[in-house]
Structures are given as C-alpha cells and as structure tokens.
Amino acid sequence: MKGAKDHLIGKTFEALFELEDMREVIRRSLPTGMSATEETAFMESTANLKSVIEDLEKGTSENQTNFPQIVDRIGLRYREEGSINIQPIQAAGRLTPEARKALISYGDGYSTCDSCRKPFRLDKISRPPIADFHEELAGFVNMDTARVVPGARRGFQAVTSSLVGKGDSVIVSSLAHYTEFLAVEAAGGKVREIPLDHGNKVDIDSMAEKIEDVIREDGKPPSLMMMDHYDYQYANQHDIRSIAKVAHDYDIPVLYNGAYTVGVMPVDAKKLGADFVVGSGHKSMASPAPSGILATTDEYSDLVFRTTRMKGDVTGRKFGIKEVEMMGCTLMGGTLLAMMASFPHVKERTQNWDEEVRNSNRFIEEFLKIEGNKVLSEYPRRHTLTKVDTTHTFDKVAKEHKRRGFFLSDELSKLGIVGMFPGATRAWKLNTYGLSREKIDYLSDAFKEIAVKYNLNVD
C-alpha cells in the first residue's frame, strides 16, 4: 500500500503547488483585474489543477510516483505524510493544519508589519492580535511578561547577557544543553555543573555544596541558575521546585528550561519557583523554526526587556521603545503567525499529557519484550522522549550485517518509520509524542517484527 499512499501524497502536493501558481498570477495582476495574458495563464493552471484532482478521484495507484520538485535540487519533505516520525526533536514541532495555513497566507517577510503603528514594536501590534498573544503566552506559563524569540537559545542569551557579568559563575545541570553553555560564554561567564545522582538526575543534595564552592572561589554567589525540567539526553524529570528552593536560599535567580515541556504539558512557572521560563516553539509548540518564548516575573522584566537609552552623537537619534535584548523585534511573518495559529491547539493538548505519557510507556513495555533491550532513561517513563540501549540486540545484528548499523534504520524505513539516527544501534533516542494508539501499536509491532526477522528473542 506504500505506493498507493505515495500517489496520494504526490498528487496532493501537485494540487497545492498548482494553487500557488494560480495565486501568483493573481498577485501579479492589477488591483482592477487580470489582463488577457494573465487570464490565459490562470485558466491553464486551473485546467492542470482539474487534471490532478481527476487523478485523485480515480483512486490510488500502485505505480511509481514522481514527486514534484519545489525548485531545482529542493525536493519535497513528506516524512510526516508518508511515515511515522520518531525523531527526538521533531515530534512536538509538527505543525497543525492551522499553522500551515498561516504560513501560506503570512509567508511574506514582513507580513506582521502590515498594520504596525506607533510605538513600532512587535508586541504592541494589535492586528493581527500579536499584543494579545504575548499576554496569553505569559498566562500560559503563569508569568507576568512574555516575548517571542527566535528559539529557546535566544531566550537563554537574553537572560545571560542581562544578568551575567564577565567572570560570573552560572550553575547548570551536568546534562545541560550546549546552548546554555554558549549563552553563558557569550556573556563572559563560566558554567559550574551540578553533578548527577545514580539515576542520572540532578543531585539536589550536592547543590548547596556547589554553591558554597562558588562563593569561596568567586567571593560572591552565582549570578544565575539554568535548569532543565526534562533534560535532552535522557528526558529524565528533575525536581525543579526543590532545585529552585535551594537556589533562592542563596538569592540566585532561576531560569527554567522548558524546551521539552512548554507546549506539551502544563507548566506553572511561579509554582515551580522559576524567575524565567524559556520554551521552544519549533520543538514543543507546533511552530516553525526558529521560534520560542521567554517569560519572566515583574521583578526581572524591566531588566531583561529593558529599552535602549543610546543616542546618536551626530543625529541625536534615539529609539527608546526598542528592547535591547530583543534587538527591537524578533519573529516576523509566517513564523510568528503560524505559532499563533497553533496556540489554541497547543493549550488544549497540554491537558492530554498523561495520555501521551501512557502511550510512551505502552510502547516501551512492548519494546522491552525484545530480550536484551534496555531503557537508559528513568522507567516507567514520565516523558515521551526516551533513550534506549540496543547494544545486546540490534547492535549484535549490525556487527554481522553488510549494512552494519544502518540496517535498522533501513528496516524501519521499509515499514514506514523514520526519524531514527541512521547507523545507531547502541544507545539512541526516540520520541512518541503525538502518535495515536494505533500508531503506537504499529511502531511496537515493527520493532518486534524486525527482531524476529533477525532471530532475536521476543517475549
């Protein structure tokens, strides 16, 4: 049936592209209407579209499908249409239909600026309701002020450049993402890592000792603590509330890294004790890249969202309303509008987090029926991202297979499953977020089917 589905995918994209060609004819015409030449071109595209629709109406085809090209050397991306995608960082970033429609309509570069009026700032635009969206974002994570940013990393950078001075120490987890390191380095600071306990979680018992070490060495407390709720390596849950309490005992502000939480599960930042919240739009909020959010309390909003005070020495020009860390404005055009279009669905889906976690555990339970498979993340799972170990199963097959480690991703691809890092057969990650129960069962059966094919024991 794969050929049949490929036919549907290819023809659907053909129809979409033909509609865009028709739209381009309309765009080029005068406000008063189309010329004769333009009308001819429009009707030719209409006839092409009818032909594509007729092909769809005739039913599916098992024949080889030639997918249309976007332009030379840029082909279609259709993994979400054609496969089950378990790629760790893509699962919760799949766009909603509403977001895809927003991209079609608002894809032009500065489309958000159509109705921009004084004070000429992104978060003040009322049509479309961007100002309201900023207020909703703050409420979504229970913070006082929020801004959209080009990815979580820019949120980290805005905070570190505001709070961290040259030589200052910043406390991070031993599982911290590399962008946290880069944000501290860019500000001239240095990272100090909290060690992990035996379960690969932040060792809260050693936090105070680490902070005391910094105070002895630097003569002052760390200027910031950046902590992941769920880390990117194991997606283990870290006790943010207890971590924040220790930090606040030393008057250290806490940045909550919600790259894997904001947009997929409920987040009450004040309840957790966070002073800053950073989220990833393209990782967890069904938004295009690059997008994300930065939110904070009233205590820090005037600092992180401070406005420029600089004045030109020749012209005397000043731009007081522009926020320094935001470089004036951040997300323009389709990126922001798609993020906004997905937001109602994103808010709703966070209430279904328990079901997502149940599906994750449902898959892992079946995955562990392949004798020798292990879970390196905490288990039972509390997240949909999981790190597994197949050293004693699929890696054994890889050692004898002519394709080596690539055999597993090859076999999965044949069954319509993508997103696994090619060549990985030892420790690797997958994410089941957003998969229906039917797809979870299909995914489970696929791994067991491959195991049986290569004479691995399955319970």
UniProtKB/TrEMBL annotation:
NCBIfam families: PRK09331.1, SepCysS
A GO biological process held by the record: translation
Pfam families named in the record: SepSecS
InterPro entries per record: PyrdxlP-dep_Trfase, PyrdxlP-dep_Trfase_major, PyrdxlP-dep_Trfase_small, Sep_Cys-tRNA_synth_arc, SepSecS/SepCysS
Functional summary from the UniProt entry: Converts O-phospho-L-seryl-tRNA(Cys) (Sep-tRNA(Cys)) to L-cysteinyl-tRNA(Cys) (Cys-tRNA(Cys)).
Gene3D superfamilies named in the record: Aspartate Aminotransferase, domain 1 (3.90.1150.10), Type I PLP-dependent aspartate aminotransferase-like (Major domain) (3.40.640.10)
Name of the featured protein: O-phospho-L-seryl-tRNA:Cys-tRNA synthase
EC class: transferase
The entry's keywords: Protein biosynthesis, Pyridoxal phosphate, Transferase
